Amino acid sequence: MTTRKYLAVSSMTLALALACGQTLAQDDLPRTPAGKPDLQGVWSNATLTPLTRDRELGETLVLDAEQVMAMEGGHQDFLAAEYAASDPDREPGAGAQGGDDGDTDDGYNEFWKEVGERIQVINGEPRSSIIVDPPNGQIPFAGDPRARFARAPGAPGRNDGPEGRPLSERCLISFGNHSGPPMLPVMYNNNYQIVQTEDYVMIMAEMMHDARIIRIDDELMPHMDKWMGDSVGHWDGDTLVVTTTGYHPQHTVFGASENLTVTERFERVSTSEIVYTFTVDDPTVFSQPWTGELLFNAKSADQPMYEYACHEGNYALPGVLAGARRAEAEAANQ
Length: 334
Hints:
The protein is an alpha+beta fold. It is 16% helix and 21% strand. It has three helices and twelve strands. A nine-stranded mixed barrel has the order 1-5-6-7-8-9-10-11-12. β11 and β12 (290-298) form a beta hairpin. α1 (3-19) packs across α2. The longest helix has 18 residues, at 65-82. The protein is globular, with a radius of gyration of 22 Å.
């Protein structure tokens, strides 16, 4: 689809997006037998809206129609190029479509990805970033953020052994920050299943099928060091508020420290939408708390969430480590 044709279609879809999801009054919200808003179902937070804002946009949080159509149209043009037939005569090392860079470092082409095709619209506003505060849409790191990601002295190197590989590669927790909190979209599998009782809310993330169990009206137990922290919720009117602390020391959320606290708010606003707001607070790493807003869209009842199969320990790890040993031997021989 050419950009011009896409812009014509996108102008209509933008209007639909602005009106999508039947807005509900409090009395019309689906409710549990206990009278709380019913958050249950399968939801997706896939979106083209990035976590941090394009710096050229400055403090512009709300996009105009032309900007939305340009961003969505550009993504469609990119997909069209990615799905084009490959040139069987392309040079070795060129990309699948014969490009110069051969950008295949992650081992995936667009067939496997599901990043969303639309800019998210919250309160009728097409958003330029998920982060809404600070006003510039950036993560407010205190000092040089690279220091938070540096390997600790004495810790295993990336290829020294299994312990040096990323947690997600070892099938311990999901890629990116999909499981959360905060729960953010990644390149695919951006689905969640919520199961709710009077005393608990369970959120199952599709990626790595991580299950977070939120206790309602309980005390925090930060000393537990769970992978996704210890989460306790309470109802503020019709909004579920969840506080999480006590993350596992190996699970760094944007380089945060043991002082990290994440506060989430789940507000069902329509027949098919939950507005998810999160605030990340760690005075050790960030110069101020920062907040994001994300839309969770309901999946239809005939779209169940299937199990994500991350093979126990990752069957490819022996090959990764064997390759590192081979590289070391070759370097020694030279």
